Each structure stands twice: as C-alpha cells, then as structure tokens.
UniProtKB/TrEMBL annotation:
GO MF entries: 4 iron, 4 sulfur cluster binding; metal ion binding; oxidoreductase activity
Keywords from the named record: 4Fe-4S, Iron, Iron-sulfur, Metal-binding, Oxidoreductase
Claim: Metal-binding is one of the keywords in the record: yes
Provenance organism: Thermoproteota archaeon
Domain of life: Archaea
GO-annotated cellular components: plasma membrane
Official protein name in the record: Cysteine-rich domain-containing protein
Amino acid sequence: MLKEVKKMAEGIKRDIPLYTKDKFSIPYIRHASRDAEPEDWNTIKFPNSDKYPDLDAAKSHALRCWACRSCEISTFANWAYICPPAAFPKNSRTAAYRGHGKNYLVLGLLQGYFEPTEAVAEAVFQCALCGNCTIQCAIGGGASDPLVSLDALRRTFVKLGLGPMPKHKRFIEFIQKYHNAYGEPTENRFAWWPPEVKKPVKKKKADVLYFAGCTGPYRVQEPCIATVKLLNAAGVDFTVLDTDEWCCGSPALMVGAWEEARETLKHDFELIEELGVSRVVTTCAGCYRQLKEGCKKLGLKPPVEIIYTVELVNELIRQGKLKPTKPLNITITYHDPCHTGRHIGLFDEPRELISYLPGVKFVEMERIFHQSWCCGAGGGMMSGFPETAKFAATERLKEAKATGASYLTTVCPFCELNFYRAEQDAKTGIVTGGEADLIVLLAKACGLM
C-alpha cells in the first residue's frame, strides 16, 4: 500500500501541488479512523470539516477507498483503462485524474495538507462523470463512490470561486440568458420541426409531452425530427412546450452549479404540471436522467412519469402502431450512453428496438452494458476539456470499427455529437452522428425518413 501511495503522490506532484513532501501520506490521513467501525466514519472530525461542509459530507466514501486502482485499470485484455481522463496520455502519470485520486483530494483538503488552487480545480473538473469507477470499485455496494467525492469537490470549488472552468461558466450564462446551453436564440428551439406535422403547442391533458432538450434541437436534429414523425405516424396524443421549454439544467448540475440548475428545471416542471400531461418523453439522455433522477439532488421531484424514446417506440411497435418493414441492409453496433445505461439501467430496451429493425445485422463491442466505455462528452468535459473528450470518442470509434459494423448507433445526441466531431479526424469510415441514431434508423425502417 505505501509503495502505491508514494507512486501516486509523486505522480501528482509533477503537475499539481497537492501534497507537501514531509506531511502527506494516506495512512496518516486514515490514522484517525483506524479504530472506528464503518458506521462511525461519518462522525470523524477533520481540521477543515467546518470549512468544507460538502467535502465533510462525502468523507465516509473517501475514507473507505484504499487506492486499489479498480476504478482505473481495465479487466479487459485489449483495453488498459476504464476511465477516459486516466487513459488520456497527458494525464497518465497523475493520480488526481483517477477515481481514487478524487477520494484523496477530499481527504487532503479536509486534513489541510494542501489548499484548493486552479491546478487542483482542473483535476476536479476534468471528468465525464460516467460512473464506470463506481461500477468497478472493489469495495462494492456504492460504499466508496468516487462520484460522491467528485460531486462534493465540484460544489466546493464553485462556492470558492475556483470553478467551474471558463467554458463551463459560459454555458451556464447561456442557460440563464437564452435557456439553452449553446447560446442559440430561444425562438429557434423548434425551428427544425417537420412541416408536414402540425405542432401541438402546450396542449393540455395530452398523453405525452415531448421534451426535445438542447443538443438535439440546436446541434443534432435528426433524432428530434424522427421522434416527432414517429409520434405523429403512431397517432400519439402529444404536445410540446415550444419556446417555453428551458434547458433541463443537467449541464449546470454536472459542473456543480446547483442553484442555476434548480432554477431552470423548476420552470419546466411547473409548466409540465400545469399542462396536466400523463408522461414526458425525451430524446436526450442527459435530459432523461435529469428529469427522472437528477432533479432529486435539487430538492425537486418529477411531476409525471418520465420515459425515454426507446421505451415509448418499443411500446408502440408492440401495440402495432409502428411497423418497421423497410429493410435497412446495414451492420450496426450499439454504444450504451452513460446517462441511460450505467446511471439508469436502460440496456435491454435499445437492443429490443434493434431486434425490430429489418435488414440489420447487430454486432456488440467488447465493452458494453455497465462496463461500456464512455464517449467522453459528459460532465462538462467536451466543453471544458475537448482534447480529452475527443480522445475518448476516438477510442470508442476504433472499438466500434473493429466489430465490422458500418454504423455506430446510440440513443444520445450528445454522444453522437462527440462521435461525429472525433470521426472528422479519426476517419474510421464508420457512420455516426445523428444519421446513425437508433430512433432515426427506426424512422427509416418505417418509411418516414
């Protein structure tokens, strides 16, 4: 253990002034809890417990961590890492970018071994929050969750004025001013709407409210167009908020700006409740998780049932309201988005939809389901650390290409945006982006696109 600690400390010292040479040691931090039973760990008092209350609330997770590196090292023969920032070459010798490193940042700050600085902030915010570290943690059961530590670190650094990163602050300003994360005109949120479909704006008591999100309407429009055409073709009673739809707040929540996230999501929830719709469906993985689960962190709760597009279209196919009969004649592989997959558990539903598509050969990548490799876009990484995000996406493109597939499909516009941008340089030849979206493929199989 001590050998590993020394190696980790030396790696961090090269890039980030976190640990003083004479003071820092993980065993010393643990000394206060040596005789404590696990249920007593929350009662341990650190010198800076009052100074950093959010970190203090996360200390039990950090204290349980033994830096075994399960959160970093892959068990797959062909892949060295499970964590994109850890695998990124520029970070490869710096432990602060790993899951266990985040746990020890919490303990080091609480113990007062170093001060929060801009350099430390970079390590705190360079993470996609994919959750693979949580899944792989050898302790298990969520008892030592690096994401709990990271969540507390981000909130703390935001309160200290050391976070989020400059480009994160920019999209938070956009959310407040334009109600979307891209700074696009509010009136253009539904400019992509297919002209052959009548737009049902704020219709009360509709069965479904379609929540389009930000990335789809402003960057990857194909899934939005496909969703509306499918809902219309199936005769679904649906409505939209139109220009009154605001960002769900997920981007702000991910980077520690909780108040800004709560403000924008509260607006949406109030409108949804006012309309009296039965359920909400969205094409954005980030929106889906935020509306369904992320809201609870902000003291809010979903006003109605929240479902994802794949859940709804599978239901419509089983009811005979959608009939995909046009052969696509392609080979596809599927990427599990972190928001819908690891964090929510939608693994079978996309694969069920794939089984309905005629003329499709489906091949799986090696890293799938809970162990899926993150595309690298989430958690503010694509905006704040585009090189790391591009690296992660390129790794996934290579893995997809190795299956022999011609299409890399998924159900997350944000993943698709990152894959599409990475492919411009990677040139693997695999089709990705909105064109390869699974809902778009269904619309094509139904003869709607």
